[in-house]
């Protein structure tokens, strides 16, 4: 799957920019900041910068991924979600994958054990 956007560090945050921007091309982030595209290799400290919430929300919408964090669920999604394996993890990766697949239209069946 080819993504429409890629992530780039800018001004102590991670922002989404169009995938087709080459190094030194000017363009806009999804949150509207004008940037010059840099290399795909990031400086070590930039790996820990926070993700721009506006870029993240716009990127997820373009990819058909539910927003994060979840504000609530409907009964169908909640009934299909597996229980957290570690007894209450604040980030349940498997549940995130299931939610995303359902949001993209996947018809998932509850596994039988």
Topology:
Elements: E1 5-10, E2 13-18, E3 26-28, E4 34-36, H1 53-63, H2 75-80, H3 93-103
Antiparallel strand pairs: 1-2, 3-4
Description:
There is one protein chain. With 113 residues, this protein is α+β, with helices and mostly antiparallel strands. The chain has helices at 53-63, 75-80, 93-103; strands spanning 5-10, 13-18, 26-28, 34-36. Strands 1-2 form a two-stranded antiparallel sheet. Strands 3-4 form a two-stranded antiparallel ribbon. A hairpin with a 5-residue loop joins β3 (26-28) and β4 (34-36). The two termini are 32 Å apart. 11% of the residues are buried. Mean pLDDT is 78; it is low at 75-90.
Counting copies of identical and different chains, the oligomeric state is single chain
Percent of sequence in beta strands: 15-25%
Spatial strand sequence of the major β-sheet: 1-2
Count the strands?
Answer: 4
- Rounded mean pLDDT is 78
What structural category do the secondary elements indicate? alpha+beta
Helical residues, percent: 10-25%
Tell me the overall shape: elongated
Annotation field: number of helices: 3
Low-confidence stretches: 75-90
Determine the N-to-C terminus distance: 32 Å
Rg (C-alpha, Å): 17 Å
């Amino acid at each position: 799957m080819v993504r429409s956007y890629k992530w780039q560090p800018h001004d102590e945050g991670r922002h989404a920019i169009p995938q087709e921007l080459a190094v030194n091309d000017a363009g806009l982030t999804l949150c509207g900041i004008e940037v010059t595209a840099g290399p795909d290799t990031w400086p070590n400290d930039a790996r820990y910068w926070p993700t721009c919430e506006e870029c993240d929300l716009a990127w997820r919408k373009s990819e058909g991924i539910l927003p994060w964090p979840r504000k609530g669920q409907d009964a169908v999604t909640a009934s299909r979600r597996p229980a957290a394996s570690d007894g209450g993890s604040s980030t349940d990766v498997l549940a995130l994958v299931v939610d995303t697949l359902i949001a993209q239209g996947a018809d998932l069946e509850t596994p039988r054990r």
